[in-house]
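call fold(seq) -> tokens
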Amino acid sequence: MITTVSRESTYATLGLPDSPVIVDVRTESDYLALPRLIPGAMRGSPDQFGSWSRNLPRTRAVIMYCADGEAVSSTAAESLVSMGYPVSILDGGLAGWTRAGHVTVRARPEYKSPGASQWVTRERPKIDRLACPWLVRRFIDPDAQFFYTQPHRVRSQATALDAQPYDIADVTFSHNGPKCSFDAFLEQFDLHDPVLDRIADIVRAADTGKLARSPQAPGLLAISLGLSANIADDTLLLEQAMPVYDALYAWCKVASHETHSWPMKPPERAEPRGLVTP
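ret:
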């Protein structure tokens, strides 16, 4: 029997290391009627099941959702179960998810998102040019590809690769007034979530030199500059930076209330019972 998972438990793990693979299996008509997805979900049209199902990782749980969490997702889930995948269905589908007030992300077919988006920017990334790829891969398009090149070649490479340029002057995905490129991605994909908004505050302060506006910004800047100093290959640098932003997201979502100090405060000693003081 296919199990059903709640919207609350799904959101609670969204973006964390133990997050399941989420697959949008709505029919094409349902998808076009509401071109939005749960953040981080891959699109798997039920009419093309064979083309995408074989690429799912077998080491992670899978959650499927359709428009209402009923027939379409059940059929796709049963097919995956027969192939040995650990699959669950999202209770209520996307309709239930949105009724509960959970965040969704806008599909942007003009950018081939989700599923095949490509992005190019200046070489030697520091803050925005690492934070934006993390945001896209974790919450917008898990299959996105990113390229780095010399500053004067970004536009020509964007044309050659049929990719979108970002974090350069006079393009959609770049700085606008006090906001940085990370903000532009959130706005263009209509992605509004309290945790990501908090990440945006940190990234913006670190990227624009306004370190006093976020207590975490100096630390992010220091780690980013250290990574850049240690790693000459920009593609490898991005892969090494991804866990840094994963950790920052996890801290914002589940661990910002924790504290740490040393030395530890010694436990209070209880007075011994039954003793008479002379």
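The mean pLDDT is 94.
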